[in-house]
Amino acid sequence: MKIIVGLSGGVDSSVAALLLKQQGCDVEAMYMQNWHDITGTLHGECEWEEEKVVAEMVAKQIGIPFHFVDLSDDYRNQVVDYMFSEYAAGRTPNPDVMCNSKIKFASFLKKVEELGGDMVATGHYCKKETITVNGKEVYRILAGDDPNKDQSYFLCQLTQSQLKKALFPIGHLTKPQVREIARKYNLPSAEKKDSQGICFVGKVDLPVFLQQKLKAKEGNVVEIFKEDYPAIKQRADKEAVAKDTTGEDLFRECLPVTYLPEDGKVIGKHIGVQYYTIGQRHGLKIGGHQGSIFIISTDTATNTIYVGEGKEHPGLFRNGLIIKPEEIHWIREDLKMKEGEEREYLVRIRYRQPLQKATLKMRKEGMFILFEKPQRGITPGQFAAWYEKEGEMLGSGPINQ
């Protein structure tokens, strides 16, 4: 069985390749180039060229064949265009989730198979197990053993057919252990810092990056004062109840509050709602407040950003969220919920967020996720992923509302 490691030039994939080689596996490495354009990148240079050199040096040190593949067209079509369309619609996308499902375990997997590879290995901090259900092999994604580095969330859109071909050799290790192994075997990536920013693009000035396709358009920043929030929420609740088709008052629990310009006071200007996200506190450049101001809502129709002062502003918190029926994704298809069914799971709505207790309610209108405690910064476009108590991730979906 031939295993091809997606060697990125970072320490995690380097150690993944080393461990497989030490286990006596037939291992090869392949570096994927996914991006050429440096528009908006903060380093201002072609980071991928340096990454490729380090990856090639690692492969040579380990003693495995090295390959190179350019997947930049697929990456632009499947990931970057998705980013632009989501931001244009006023949502906040997660390119890392899409990169894994559409590139690393799709386009890259095809190239692996063309090279005669049977499996793809990556440096993700997560684990995979195989069980038998009704005589059929079923693949499980489990949280990695390092609680500070668990990356299972980024794989929340993978399918059973993709998991069948996937290996995660470092899921049982912590980051310090991985660094120690890399140093012990003098891997060129041993001291390399973790990558930051957008997957394969790097750290970017987001407005500059997005202005490649999304034009700047000045709009108002409206502050919602805490003392006015109860009346606004009461109005929003009445509107939600009027829209509710579930007969269970689920819309009131899960729909975000809709604000009107007259609900608050104009305190500044912004360059376009598509450049901002709920929960954000940097980038508005508005002073005159004792505490930090946070974005609590955006309105693409009026190009208005609504903000509130303080990290405990009630506008930052919600009890639940909704996922569209057609966007609900089950990794464990054998555990798929039926309409009318309810289950208790642990849910996270962003990477590294501690798992939160929640009740999932499957209805014809979609998946309603109601949290035991109100959640801060529920953001449309991001992914909600649900887990069993022992750490198995079962499914996910993009937050619609």
Global outline: globular
Radius of gyration: 23 Å
CATH architecture of the largest domain: 3-Layer(aba) Sandwich
**Terminal Cα separation, in Å?**
45 Å
Number of contiguous helices: 9
As residue ranges, the low-confidence spans are none
Class of the largest domain in CATH? Alpha Beta
Structure description:
This protein has 3 domains: 2-210, HUPs (Rossmann fold, 3-Layer(aba) Sandwich), CATH 3.40.50.620; 219-314, SH3 type barrels; 318-398, Translation factors (Elongation Factor Tu (Ef-tu), domain 3), CATH 2.40.30. Helices cover 26% and strands 27% of the residues. The chain has 9 helices and 18 strands. A hairpin with a 2-residue loop joins strand 15 (356-363) and strand 16 (366-376). The radius of gyration is 23 Å and the shape is globular.
Secondary-structure blueprint:
Blueprint lengths: L1 E5 L4 H12 L3 E8 L13 H16 L3 E5 L1 H17 L6 H20 L4 E3 L4 E8 L2 E8 L16 H5 L1 E2 L7 H10 L21 H5 L8 E5 L5 H15 L6 H5 L10 E6 L22 E7 L4 E6 L7 E7 L5 E2 L11 E7 L7 E8 L2 E11 L6 E5 L4 E7 L3
Parallel strand pairs: 1-2, 1-4, 2-3, 4-7, 8-11
Antiparallel strand pairs: 5-6, 6-18, 8-9, 10-11, 12-16, 13-18, 14-15, 14-17, 15-16, 17-18
Helix pairs in contact: 1-2, 1-6, 3-4
